[in-house]
Amino acid sequence: MEIDPFIFRLSIFILSIFIGYYVVWSVTPSLHTPLMSVTNAISSVIIVGAIIAALAGETGNIFDTANIFGFLAIILAAVNIFGGFLVTQRMLAMYKKKKKDKK
Amino acid sequence: MISVNLLAVFYLISGVLFILALRGLSSPETSRKGNLFGIIGMALAIGVTIISVGSFSTGFLYLIILLLIGGSIGAFIAFKIPMTAMPELVAGFHSLVGLAAVFVAISAFLNPEVFKLGSPGNIKIASLIEMSLGAAIGAITFTGSIIAFLKLRGIMSGSPITFFGQHYVNLFLGLFLIGLIFYLCRTQVDTWFWTIILISFLLGVLLIIPIGGADMPVVISMLNSYSGWAAAGIGFTLENTALIITGALVGSSGAILSYIMCKGMNRSFFNVILGGWGATEQSSSNKSQEQKPVKNGNADDAAFLMKNASSVIIVPGYGMAVAQAQHALREMVDALKKNGVKVSYAIHPVAGRMPGHMNVLLAEANVPYDEVFELEEINNDFANCDVAYVIGANDVTNPVAKSDPQSPIFGMPVLDVEKSKSVLFVKRSLSPGYAGIDNDLFYRDNTLMLFADAKKMTEEIVKSL
């Protein structure tokens, strides 16, 4: 009997939790705020689901209710992706400037 | 069109890039490269998804337009937001992830064929469970983050809102949700699905209103974690590796941050979640200390003390953020350094309204990060330091946490400020801090109280230096 693909995904999920655990403990406390903004940005990868939802079944009617929810999710996720990465960049740049100042 | 297998490989790569993005944050040196990895990972995931859908007609045009609209809103916010407003911003962004998860789940429910999950009314049970969990957690994240946002923004009072039987109501709603998911799987009736989302919206509000302003670091971290689990739930539904990996990373990241914040207050996670800091215990410590004498100073006294010190430790807190005093503080430190004074900063884990809040503000004011220390790193140095300058912090310096087992904050790790030769305490009044207890430090012989706004007082000190 073959293994259900769900088990593979579950394995990826569990192992990723462990990776997350060790990686996040190694984050320096002074960067905890950028950590939050960057995790926020990457969790917006949910946009891939939104894109599929929005563009699927296009041949018929693109403004089907299901598609509209997809489009709405795209906007929300896009705000987050751009906002999240850029604000992280802005914060991290401040940590750099100081180092130069000192030298 | 690209093959499903190739697509999965690309999603895996972007998942790995996200791991590297977090890994980069282990030091400020590598952090910017890490952020770049994150951006590449995201671009890759979006790019291959668009290619996989494969049709470049009207829908594609809408997609680009919406990406641009959302993107410019996001970019505008990112560049405009003042650093003191970071906690609100992050809370606001969490709410968007939550709502996006809800929308994707709704879309998958209405049109399951697209995601190969079966047909409406006959969706695979496993997928149904995954998507309702994703939708429920997303909905809780959405309304919970909105409440957190309103509280942080000051639109809603930061004080806990509690009512009789609150925890039982929440427990009941939680169990009700599980029951609804069960029924949804058995009947496939869409009413249950909508009810699940509505109840989750309500639960999100109820979970966050009893939590007070100073517990916000825990709340934000917790919502961060929730947004991750919601993404993972959707990832299982869509069978998408990038989403599953990211959801797990974000979920555990938020959980660890919540844990660190709770540790910083010596409270259990449940104690924070279940609301307000024990209001009943206040009276015991308040009575005896009403009429104690305090030493009152002005900016000149403070300037004199610090100028003649050989080392000064600065203890910033939320008050510094409120008064926007970080730039004035930096000027003061520059002036002190010119006088040959050694200056360092001591940061308590829960100072401010989110993890790392004080560090970012100091970074904004161009304070070199190697002068900024965490509690464990610097706590022994107070004994050898001449002046501790407490600006906007209160409970995290209270020696009562070490001496009085009756105190509600007993056992909380605090900065040993009282061990330094003299303490300058900038505060607007003698009123107790968030925990509602008197700070013993005010009445010590070596404490000089500077009653003023944090920014004004610091500026005046700069002048008299």
Keywords:
heterodimer; A: 103 residues; mainly alpha; 78% helix; 0% strand; flat; B: 465 residues; alpha/beta; six-stranded parallel β-sheet; 18 helices; elongated
Number of helices in the DSSP assignment of chain B: 18
Please, how many helices of chain A?
4
Largest sheet of chain A: none
Provide the residue-averaged pLDDT of chain A.
Answer: 85
Low-confidence stretches of chain A: 98-103
- Uncertain ranges of chain B: 277-289
Computed over alpha carbons, the radius of gyration of chain A is: 19 Å
Beta strand % of chain B: 5-15%
Amino- and carboxy-terminal Cα gap of chain B: 69 Å
Helix content of chain B: 55-70%
Shape of chain A: flat
For the largest interface, the chains and their residue counts are:
A-B, 85 and 116 residues
Question: Which helices and strands, and how do they pair?
Answer:
The complex is a heterodimer of chains A (103) and B (465).
Chain A (H helix, E strand, L loop, with lengths): L4 H21 L6 H12 L3 H9 L9 H38 L1
Helix pairs in contact in A: 2-4, 3-4
Chain B lengths: L3 H20 L4 H26 L4 H23 L5 H25 L7 E2 L2 E2 L1 H29 L12 H22 L2 H19 L7 H23 L2 H25 L3 H5 L8 H5 L12 H9 L3 E6 L1 H6 L2 H13 L3 E6 L9 H8 L7 E3 H4 L8 E5 L8 H4 L18 E6 L19 E5 L2 H11 L1
Helix pairs in contact in B: 1-2, 1-9, 4-5, 4-8, 5-6, 5-7, 5-8, 6-7, 8-9, 12-18, 14-18
Structure description:
- The complex is a heterodimer of chains A (103) and B (465).
- Chain A is built from 4 helices and no strands.
- With 103 residues, chain A is mainly alpha-helical.
- In chain A, α3 packs antiparallel against α4.
- Chain A is flat, with a radius of gyration of 19 Å.
- Chain B has 465 residues and is α/β, with parallel strands linked by helices.
- About 3% of the residues of chain B have low confidence.
- Chains A and B meet through α1, α2, α3 and α4 of A and α1, α2, α3, α4 and α8 of B.
Short description:
The complex is a heterodimer of chains A (103) and B (465). Chain A is mainly alpha-helical and 103 residues long.
